[in-house]
Amino acid sequence: MQPREKSRFTKLYNKHLRALKLKGLAPKTIEAYSRGVRRLAESLDRCPVDVTKDEIDDYFARLLETHSWATIKVDRNGIRFFYEEVLGKQLPWIDFAEAPKTQRLPDILTQTEIARIIRATRRFDLRCFWFVTYSLGLRLGETLRIEVGDIDRERRQLHVRNAKGNKDRFVILPAMTLTVLRKLWTQHRHPRLLFPGRDGAKASRPMHRGNIQRGFQLAVADAGIHKRVSIHSLRHSYATHMIEAGLTLSDVQHQLGHACPKTTARYLRRTDTTTADAEHKIDVLVHVLTETLRAAMAKSEEA
User: Fold this and answer.
1) Set 127, 139, 145, 236: catalytic member
2) Domains in the chain, please, with CATH?
């Protein structure tokens, strides 16, 4: 990109970032939308103020060769925001790509497979991360953000803050999960974070997401599991196991923080048995992995 064009783009790009922030969008959404505009500018090799229909169509056609439909959708929204909110232009003539309507089901890990992953993980903090993520049905970022003050021992609840959609929720905290979090904290004694970065008690931020994801894939491989899974699969598996254990869809929806019951219903596999004691059911569900965690804790104490 020529210096003049680069300077022009930088000015508009910064204006774009400011507009996104003023709209109150989540940081991840801001990064995704701005990335789409950067990608378009790099593809055109100029400031994308004036583009033709052919240029947009060519851009998305090339993007489809290397990226998912989810990325296509995010880029579309980011570029549309840039033109409408920053440039004040309407572009109805652009035929944006639309994802085909498909319904895919995620691979589900059995509790035996989850136990194998935990045993195959060498680092104690990562073993705890897998267990806590599964036993609370959390997303990766939600586990990373757990703080000491989020734990309510008397009510047996965990306060999940700033979850998807900028929403908070309370989830049932199994007794074994509380024990694991206590044991983990004694290893680093950070005044605020449960999963601090590599500096331990002096860390200013949680563990790095990329390192956690790589650690999980390594553990999956070492455990000899060939399913297409990620850390988020622990959440999918937890939801399915809760339904199979007899919890109602309402219980599962509350624990996962789904806004729409239809999202929770996709986990319905074998049963829709009702239960009035979700806390007890979750304790029983998580207890299956207790011996694996106890063995991991014992090894940590011997080390």
Assistant:
1) 139
2) 3-86 (1.10.150), 111-302 (1.10.443.10)
Cα–Cα distances (Å) from 46 to 6, 29, 31, 41, 95, in that order, read 7, 24, 20, 6, 21
How far apart (Å, rounded) are the C-alpha atoms in residues 275 and 284? 13
From 235, 236, 241, 281, active-site residue: 235
Q: Partners of 140 in the beta sheet?
A: none
Q: pLDDT of 92-119, one tens digit each?
A: 455 555 556 666 678 889 999 999 999 9
Is residue 280 annotated as part of the catalytic site, yes or no? no
Catalytic residue among 80, 156, 232, 254: 232
Q: Tally the C-alpha atoms within 13 A of residue 57's C-alpha that lie toward its C-beta.
A: 6
> Which residue has 């694996």 as its token pair?
292
**Exposure of 95 by Cβ count < 10 A (0-12 exposed, 13-18 middle, 19+ buried)?**
exposed
232 is catalytic: yes
Task: Enter the pTM of the model.
Answer: 0.68
Give the mean model confidence (pLDDT) for residues 262-282: 60
**Is 267 annotated in the active site?**
yes
The yes-or-no answer on residue 258 being catalytic is: yes
Selecting among 164, 183, 188, 266, the annotated active-site residue is 164
